[in-house]
Amino acid sequence: MTLQLGEKHFSSAQPESAVRRIVTFRVGDRTFGIDVGMVREIKGWQATTPLPHSAPHVRGVLNLRGVILAVYDLRTSIGLGTTEASATHVIVVVDVDDKTAGLLVDSVSDIVDVPVSAVRPAPDLERDEHGLIEGLVLLDTDIVALLDLAAVIRDGGVEQQVAKAARPN
User: Fold this and answer.
1) What's the whole-number mean pLDDT along residues 131-159?
2) Of 34, 77, 92, 118, which one's alpha carbon is 20 to 30 angstroms from that of 101?
3) Long-range contacts of 80-84 (CB under 8 A, 24+ apart)
């Protein structure tokens, strides 16, 4: 299963609006979201190749149409242990700071429009302790934590390892 969301997702020619479009996904009983413009595609689980000495939340790398893609286990990033990946899990392929990475999540839920005014700051304790949440949104009775993707992948330590793995011997 692969869902293409487009190359550079939404035109910057759109007028400035007070709405944020987010993709929501689940990890355990928690709901997270990221801006839809950061999502390149959503693909079914594919086994990864582990890299030695990588951070615990780095699942490994995989070949995505000739691009070596680092995959991060979001469950590990948020302190819930390691994902026992199965065919029902998905990888959300994202573009962050001119890098392409994958997030291993349980499932993708929806694409929703959220008023910018509805985004609340993350509690200071959360920011200090983990630094992964940029804001919170209440959707119906569910609280959606908006991820700071740069923070999720920042400490992965795979950039140099991916570059070394890509070099011919």
Assistant:
1) 81
2) 118
3) 80/27, 80/28, 82/56, 83/59
